[in-house]
Amino acid sequence: MSTPEDEQDEQDEVDRIVEAWQRERGDLEVTPLHVLSRVSRLARHLDLARGSAFAQHRLEGWEFDVLSALRRAGAPYELSPGQLVKQMLVTSGTMTNRVDRLERRGLVHRKPRPGDRRGVIVGLTQEGRKVVDSAMADLLDRERELLAELPERERRQLAELLRRLLLPFEP
Predict the structure, then answer these.
(1) How far apart are CA 95 and CA 93, in angstroms?
(2) Of the candidates 153, 134, 67, which has an alpha carbon nearest to the alpha carbon of residue 105?
(3) pTM of the full predicted structure?
(4) Does residue 40 sit in the same domain as residue 71?
(5) Please, what's the largest Cα pairwise distance for the chain?
(6) Containing domain of residue 76, as a range?
(7) What is the dihedral of CA 145, 151, 152, 155, to 10 degrees?
(8) Helix or strand run (H / E) with residue 137
(9) I need a surface site. Which of 1, 38, 76, 138 has the fewest CB within 10 A?
(10) How many CB atoms lie within 10 A of CB 147?
(11) Closest alpha carbon to 71 in 129, 139, 111
C-alpha cells in the first residue's frame, strides 16, 4: 500500500513535461503547467469516460447535453429554444439542427408556445427521459471511478478550488 509520501515521489507525465521545459527554457516560469496541464489531461480522460457512457445509450455528448438540460428543468421537462441556446452556448441555428435531429429520433418533441403562435417549446418524450436518466446514471458511475483515488474531504476541497478558478469565466 502506498503512503502519501510515496505518491509525492511518483512522477506523472506533467512532471516530465515541466522538467523538460525547465531544462530547455530555464528563463520561463512554468509552474502554471503543474495545475493547468493536469486539468487539461483530466478533461481528456473525462471526455473519454463521458463518450463511453453516452455510447452505451447511442448518444453523442451534445445530445446528452440537450436532453439533460430538459430533464433538469423539471416536470414537464420543457424549455424554449432560446433557453436551450443560452444553456448550451451555441447559435440558434445549431440548436434548431440539434432539436431536429433529436426529434427525428423520438427523444424530444416540439409544441406551440401558449399565447405565441410563432414560438415553440421543446420537451422530452418518454423515451428521451428514459435515455437521459440511464445515461446520467452510467456517467455518474464512471465519474465516481475517476475520483476514486481521492477521499471525500479532498474531493470537496478540489471542487472548491476548481470553482474559484472557473467563476471568472462564467457568465
Answers:
(1) 5
(2) 67
(3) 0.79
(4) no
(5) 67
(6) 61-131
(7) -70
(8) helix 126-147
(9) 1
(10) 13
(11) 129
